[in-house]
């Protein structure tokens, strides 16, 4: 086991997630109040958005930032096509459910990204602050692609189209991430210094307790799963492996540093379990939440936290080393 892998498994944020899963499998009554969990989620998104905006205010927006944004948005549009083909073929899902699940795998998990940033920081591979903007930009394109794959934007959605689009573009995570990012850019380092005791000092502690809660939820959903087949379970592991490698390779190819390339890989590998389920509930009410939530939250999310972030980090370092060694 190399040093970076060891750092991943001994990170407190990962160990708290393991503790939550272990407690759930042991049928402990440990629980985090829903209001507390929501408050922690808002805090984490505000903190990561602010810090990303401050970082960009220092570095400015250049060709690298624009290339990363283009790569992220493009990946979010295209990944659902691959996921849809695999889900319909190997996974044997119908068109509606395949489209709904595909949207989850093209979009992103904010908590997976935040966890990855903490692990990469410990490994001395900090991603660029602009990756927060890339993450926010990748949330919505996949939803539109998933809907097109499921039945097209002209089909009946079961909800007013304006309501669905409002949910896609103005959901809480997008508004808070982009808003905090803009505040960080406007305020800069001097402005952030005034609130840094709150957003810096408590960040890792809040993330640990939040991941404890996510471990509890993921494990309990696994135990309650009814609609999951072995084929879908294999896809929930195989897609993040493949997408993570492709995203990391893409980030390296466009000239991102090791940490930012790894962050792009993590974004491509992650699957949404907050924003996309909310949009699918409005746009595709007949899709089965027992399939798309179990795959994204109970299988892909733990796999990424426990294993795939470390693999992506190692891959980014390997690809960067190969590029440096090339004549």
Descriptive key words:
single chain, 327 residues, mainly alpha, 15 helices, 79% helix, globular
Q: Can you walk through the features of this model?
A:
This protein has helices at 3-9, 12-25, 34-59, 63-89, 95-106, 110-122, 131-137, 141-150, 161-169, 172-201, 203-224, 230-253, 258-269, 275-283, 289-325. It has 327 residues and is an all-alpha fold. α4 (63-89) packs parallel to α8 (141-150), α6 runs antiparallel to α13 (258-269) and α11 packs across α15. The radius of gyration is 19 Å and the shape is globular. The two termini are 30 Å apart.
Give a nutshell description of this structure.
With 327 residues, the protein is mainly alpha-helical. It is built from 15 helices and no strands.
> What string, H for helix and E for strand, traces the elements in order?
HHHHHHHHHHHHHHH
Cα-to-Cα separation, first versus last residue: 30 Å
Helix amount, in percent? over 70%
Q: Radius of gyration, Cα only, in angstroms?
A: 19 Å
Rounded average pLDDT? 87
Q: Which shape, going by the Cα principal axes? A: globular
Outline the biggest β-sheet: none
The overall strand count is 0
User: Which residues sit in consecutive blocks of at least 5 with pLDDT less than 50?
Assistant: none
Structural class, by secondary structure, is: mainly alpha
Strand content: under 5%
């Amino acid at each position: 086991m190399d040093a970076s892998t060891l750092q991943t498994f001994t990170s407190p944020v990962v160990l708290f997630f393991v503790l939550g899963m272990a407690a759930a499998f042991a049928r402990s009554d440990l629980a985090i109040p829903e209001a507390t969990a929501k408050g922690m989620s808002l805090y984490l998104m505000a903190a990561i958005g602010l810090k990303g905006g401050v970082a960009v205010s220092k570095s400015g927006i250049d060709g690298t930032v624009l290339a990363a944004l283009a790569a992220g948005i493009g990946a979010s549009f295209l990944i659902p096509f691959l996921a849809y083909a695999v889900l319909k073929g190997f996974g044997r899902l119908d068109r509606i459910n395949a489209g709904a699940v595909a949207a989850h795998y093209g979009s992103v998990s904010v908590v997976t990204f935040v966890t990855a940033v903490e692990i990469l920081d410990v490994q001395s591979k900090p991603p660029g602050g602009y990756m927060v903007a890339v993450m926010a930009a990748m949330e919505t394109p996949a939803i539109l692609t998933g809907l097109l794959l499921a039945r097209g934007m002209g089909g009946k959605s079961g909800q007013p189209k304006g309501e669905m689009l409002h949910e896609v573009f103005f959901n809480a995570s997008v508004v808070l991430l982009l808003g905090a990012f803009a505040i960080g850019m406007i305020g800069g380092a001097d402005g952030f210094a005034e609130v840094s005791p709150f957003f810096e000092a408590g960040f890792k502690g809040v993330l640990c307790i939040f991941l404890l809660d996510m471990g509890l939820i993921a494990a309990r959903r696994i135990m309650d799963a009814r609609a999951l087949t072995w084929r879908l379970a294999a896809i929930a592991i195989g897609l993040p492996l493949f997408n993570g490698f492709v995203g990391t390779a893409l980030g390296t190819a466009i000239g991102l540093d090791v940490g930012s390339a790894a962050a792009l890989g993590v974004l491509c590998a992650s699957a949404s379990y907050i924003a996309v389920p909310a949009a699918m509930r409005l746009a595709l009410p007949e899709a089965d939440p027992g399939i798309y939530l179990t795959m994204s939250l109970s299988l892909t999310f733990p796999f990424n936290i426990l294993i795939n972030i470390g693999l992506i980090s190692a891959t980014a370092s390997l690809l960067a080393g190969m590029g440096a060694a090339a004549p």
